[in-house]
Design brief:
The complex is a heterodimer of chains A (645) and B (378). Chain A has 645 residues and is an alpha+beta fold. Among the domains of chain A are: 61 residues, no CATH class; 196 residues, Penicillin-binding protein 2a (Domain 2) (Alpha-Beta Complex), CATH 3.90.1310.10. Helix content of chain A is 35%, strand content 21%. In chain A, the strands form seven sheets. In chain A, strands 2, 3, 4, 5, 10, 18 and 19 form a seven-stranded mixed beta sheet that branches. Chain A has a five-stranded antiparallel beta sheet with strand order 12-11-23-22-21, with helices on both faces. A three-stranded antiparallel beta sheet of chain A has the order 1-8-9. The longest helix of chain A is centred in the N-terminal third of the chain and has 28 residues. Chain A is elongated. Chain A starts with 22 loop residues before the first helix and ends with a helix. Chain B is mostly helical. The radius of gyration of chain B is 21 Å and the shape is globular. Chain B has one domain. Chain B has a three-stranded antiparallel beta sheet, with helices on one face. Classes of the chains: A alpha+beta (645), B mainly alpha (378).
């Protein structure tokens, strides 16, 4: 029995009047339903039929993505064409978080740790530290062995989200062609995964989130050249970013340019060998030896000890290893040849001598008295500065004073010249400024001047300081490379060259295809006669002066140079200061000639034996370099007999 | 008690089955079939790893359970719901509270409880149970239906479960509760004036609710106004959905071929965004067929409501009609960019056991109402 619409119904339970059933509201509800469904249908018509093509086009565009193709990084050769930085395949374990179910996480990471020998906690920490899209690949362990990579590949079914990628990493070789990261680490540097700050700065240049970038040495200073140009390809992908297939290559990658260093790995080895010996016998913990061609500025060897193993960095260095390097008081990660500054001691008398003659304070032949202790002008009586020779030498001219390294002679030269002219001549010779070598982290050094004193809040430099500046003490600090380059400029007749570390570009076999031209930085504004006087003086240092021990080497030329002993730090228990030892030399064909093609500086930090270990290092190097049969190395106990200040 | 026993016994005599509503059954079965095919198409690409087939098999199992439930519920006089309205209400509150306390985490929200290995979203069945509870209340109001208190009490009854669901957080389902409330109040004969006032008050309070939302919820909510605002982020889903729907054209790309969906561009495609698969694979024609089926279904339910023996039956029927209509509007509206993205399943078509079982339970009640419309008054 139908209930007449619009009338109250009888309730089944107690017979009372039930709800009123409104025809109007039923109609309103139905009409509303119909209208709303019509609206949906209309919108569907608009989307699919009217604008269908637009959306279909967008959908197609969304399914493709441009992906970078990494360019192979340029190789690095030494000047003899030996490969010293190459790329080798490396296997990296990566995880795509979106594909790794939370429940499987621990099991999968544990298995990966088992197969690769990594720490489970380390892997988890790396995965947890990642904050990008869950569809990105997160590298959790780099440099796994090929075997481990293959095993993980075989177990792919039970390791969801785990992906193995092969990426090229650097391997650094020594002069024998075997992996040896210690030999050239300070010059070549290393590459490593790009960090967040670098990525932020370089993303516009096409750097990728998981890119490799030069971090130190030539690897960073020639990053642009070595990197090449990445290519682009159009890849079809799914929404999770998984790449399905390559549709087209838009641009092929251009491989990075291969470089040839000016360094000869053999010479580097000899310099390392000589320095290591010297540091061993003199119990020195930090040392530098740099070899250069004064005519071109090419660096033939640059050794800074202790060195680090850049192969450890190439595969991503472990925190433990890195902390060991960081904690080392001798700072193995720093290139002491350019990144640290030291008082140059007597080697700096080259600057004082040139300044004094050029400023008219003295002439080559004028003799000056020397003293056991030099009374500082204007200071109270008895306030004097000692000569290393407490007896004095009697009257000396420039050449003799340089050869004997008389301190009191050069105190007088400095005081007569004045601090600012002295500083100007220091700048003329390249001190107090970057040498311009294409290596990162070069230091400028300190050259005292009135302006420098003002920056320290003083009106000027004290006379005592001025005198000490004359012998490269106290208010003067230079890098070993600056010192070498100043002597090289004098040696070649007055042209300051820009120190070169890269000789040119090569093909894949290490044959030069483009040679970089040597670059003149500055013509030193001193008279030829002045420079000639200093060259003669430098020769006298070897023949009759402080480094005469070296003269027993049978060398193809007239070795010229200067020793230096630079006190620093605080008095020891014996009342003496610890000192650095320096020796800088060059080898012209005959005394005074400007044709030297070899210049060398050696520096030993805080030598504890008397005498000059640096001169012994240079001597040993030359013995090795010229393949002299007779071993003329001295017993370290005898150093003090022959070399001093 | 005597009445309940009598109806139970009667049902086994099969007298009522002569009035079985074939149309209702037909529309429901067609929609479920659509869902099975679409779910299979959506998951086709994952078939290699067992994804597509497994899901289809699961859906078929759920459909079988749902149909069984449908016939069982249809065979029982729906009056038991009225008798048990109060306990049912308490059970709903308990279940939702339970979900909040021990619910498993699904897409960041606690929406389901795992019982014997099966995930069950109590919020789904709660919708149907609340229709019964509200129906019982409104049917009992009789001549007092026009008073303000009707609206206030009904609103309060609905507000508690809606709030519990909102806190899961499941904004979509909470909105469905409100949709049901409005639909049932309207059809019950409640005062239009008071309803209008209440609506105005709720609209006024909307900014407060929106303010309590998480950033991601808010962004997603407003994407439909301008999908290009954040195409890679919050609006990614919507932008992809529009592309997929638009790609369908007149006739679609064909089943299992549709590219946009196949490769997983649209998250939760076999659930909330299933309509994108319909639209992409079967085009405008397929979409209109689905809309038409829903239109017919709602019309049929309204017919059952009109014919119902008593006000309680009528209220349940209009409640179910409101629920289905609301979900269809919001779900399809969402994937075609005329409604905010909220995450409401498309009735019968969306893959999901809880939703299907709950709907079949509701359809069973409808069938029961229909079959008993001709019963002579006792």
């Amino acid at each position: 029995m139908k209930h007449p619409p619009g009338e109250p119904m009888t309730d089944l339970n107690d017979g009372r009047v039930d709800l009123h059933r409104s025809r109007a509201r039923f109609i309103a509800f139905s009409v509303t339903t119909a209208l709303l469904l019509l609206v949906l249908g209309g919108r569907l018509f608009q989307l699919q039929v009217v604008n269908g093509d637009v959306y279909a086009g967008r959908a197609a565009a969304d399914r493709t993505v441009q992906v970078s193709i990494a360019a192979p990084r340029g190789l690095i050769f030494d000047r003899a064409g030996r490969p010293i930085a190459v790329s080798i395949p490396s296997w990296t374990v990566k995880v795509r978080p979106a594909d790794l179910p939370e429940a499987d996480r621990l099991r999968v990471l544990a298995r990966v740790a088992e197969l690769t020998g990594a720490e489970r906690a380390t892997l988890r920490a790396r995965l947890d530290a990642f904050s990008g899209s869950p569809f990105d690949l997160v590298p959790i362990e780099r440099g796994v062995s090929r075997e481990a990579a293959l095993l993980i590949g075989e177990e792919a079914d039970t390791l969801p989200g785990v992906v193995i990628t092969v990426e090229p990493i650097r391997q650094y070789l020594d002069e024998t062609g075997t992996a040896g990261g210690q030999l050239l680490s300070h010059v070549i540097g290393y590459t490593g995964p790009i960090n967040r700050d670098e990525l932020q700065a370089l993303e516009v240049d096409g750097y990728l989130r998981d890119d490799i970038i030069g971090k130190a040495g030539v690897e960073v200073s020639f990053e642009e050249t070595l990197r090449g140009t990445y290519g682009t390809q159009l890849v079809e992908r799914d929404a999770s970013g998984r790449q399905l297939k390559v549709i087209e290559t838009i641009r092929e990658p251009t491989p990075g340019t291969n470089l040839m260093l000016t360094i000869d790995a053999d010479v580097q080895r000899l310099a390392t060998q000589a320095l290591t010996w010297g540091m061993d016998v003199a119990d020195v913990s930090q040392g530098v030896t740099v070899v250069m061609n004064p005519q071109t500025g090419e660096i033939l060897a640059m050794v800074s000890l202790p060195a680090y193993d850049n192969n450890k960095f190439a595969g991503g260095i472990s925190t433990e290893d890195f902390n060991v390097y960081l904690a080392d008081a001798d700072r193995p990660l720093r290139n002491h040849a350019i990144s640290d500054i030291y008082p140059p001691g007597s080697t700096y008398k080259l600057v004082t001598g040139i300044a004094a003659m050029e400023e008219g304070v003295t002439t080559a032949n004028r003799e000056w008295p020397t003293y056991g202790c030099y009374q500082i002008p204007g200071a109270p009586d008895g306030e004097c500065l000692y000569d290393w020779n407490r007896k004095g030498f009697g009257p000396l001219d420039m050449v003799d004073a340089f050869a004997k390294s008389s301190d009191t002679f050069f105190y007088q030269m400095a005081v007569e010249t004045g601090i600012d002219p002295l500083a100007d001549w220091a700048h003329e010779l390249g001190f107090g400024q970057l040498s311009g070598i294409r290596l990162p982290s070069e230091e400028e050094g300190i050259i005292a001047s009135t302006e420098w004193a003002r920056q320290q809040g003083r009106s000027g430099v004290f006379t005592g300081e001025l005198a000490q500046a004359g012998i490269g003490q106290n208010v003067i600090a230079v890098t070993p490379l600056q010192l070498l380059n100043a002597y090289a400029a004098v040696a070649n007749g007055g042209t300051r060259m820009k120190p070169m570390i890269v000789r040119g570009e090569t093909d894949l076999n290490g044959e030069l295809v483009e040679t970089f031209a040597p670059e003149v930085l500055h013509e030193v504004a001193a008279d030829d006669a002045t420079l000639q006087t200093m060259r003669v003086g430098a020769r006298e240092v070897i023949t009759s002066g402080h480094a005469y021990n070296i003269s027993d080497l049978d060398l193809p030329g007239a070795l010229s140079g200067k020793t230096g002993t630079a006190e620093f730090g605080e008095l020891t228990d014996e009342g003496t200061l610890p000192f650095h030892s320096w020796f800088v030399a060059y080898l012209p064909s005959v005394a005074g000639a400007t044709d030297a093609e070899l210049a060398i500086v050696s520096f030993n930090y805080s030598a504890v034996v008397p005498g000059n270990v640096s001169a012994e290092v240079v001597k040993y190097f030359l013995q090795l370099y010229y393949e002299l049969d007779e071993d003329l190395r001295l017993d370290p106990n005898d150093f003090s007999l022959v070399t001093a200040n | 008690m005597g009445v309940a026993t009598a109806t139970f016994v009667e049902s086994f005599r099969g007298r009522d089955w002569r009035h079985f509503d074939l149309q209702l059954f037909l529309y429901v079965v067609l929609l479920i079939g659509f869902g099975v095919v679409m779910g299979y198409s959506a998951g086709f690409n994952e078939a290699a790893t067992g994804g597509g087939m497994t899901q289809t098999v699961k859906t078929l199992i759920w459909a079988a359970i749902g149909l069984t439930l449908f016939f069982v519920v249809a065979s029982v006089d729906y009056q038991w719901l009225r008798t048990l309205a109060m306990p049912i209400y308490l059970v709903v509150l308990a279940l939702l509270t339970l979900t909040m306390l021990i619910g498993t985490n699904l897409f960041g929200a606690q929406m389901s409880v795992t019982v014997a290995g099966l995930d069950f979203q109590f919020s789904e069945v709660s919708k149907v149970l609340m229709i019964a509870v509200l129906g019982a209340y409104l049917a009992g109001r009789r001549e007092r239906i026009g008073r303000l208190s009707t609206i206030l009490v009904a609103g309060a009854l609905m507000a508690i479960p809606a709030f519990l669901v909102f806190r899961q957080p499941d904004l979509g389902t909470a909105l469905v509760f409100i949709g049901i409330l409005v639909g049932m109040l309207f059809m019950s004969g409640a005062s239009l004036g008071w309803m209008g006032l209440m609506t105005a008050a709720i609209v006024g309070a909307a900014p407060i609710v929106i303010g309590t939302l998480q950033d991601y919820q808010r962004q997603r909510l407003f994407c439909f106004l301008d999908p290009s605002a954040d195409p890679q982020g919050a609006c990614f889903q919507l932008v992809q959905a529009l592309n997929a729907v638009g790609s369908g054209g007149w006739l679609g790309r064909g089943l299992t071929v549709g590219g946009e969906g196949q490769r997983g561009y649209i998250p939760v495609q076999s659930t909330d965004f299933i309509f994108t698969v319909v639209a992409e694979d079967l085009g405008f024609v397929g979409g209109v067929v689905v809309l038409t089926l829903f239109g017919l279904l709602v019309w049929r339910i309204l017919f059952i409501a009109w014919q119902a023996r008593d006000a309680f039956g009528m209220m349940i029927a209009v409640g179910l009609a409101s629920m289905i209509l609301f979900q269809v509007l919001v779900n399809i509206g969402m994937v075609i960019g005329v409604m905010p993205v909220t995450g409401i399943p498309l009735p019968f078509v969306t893959y999901g056991g809880s939703s299907l079982i709950s709907l079949m339970f509701g359809m069973g009640i409808l069938q029961s109402i229909r079959m008993r419309a001709h019963k002579p008054t006792l």
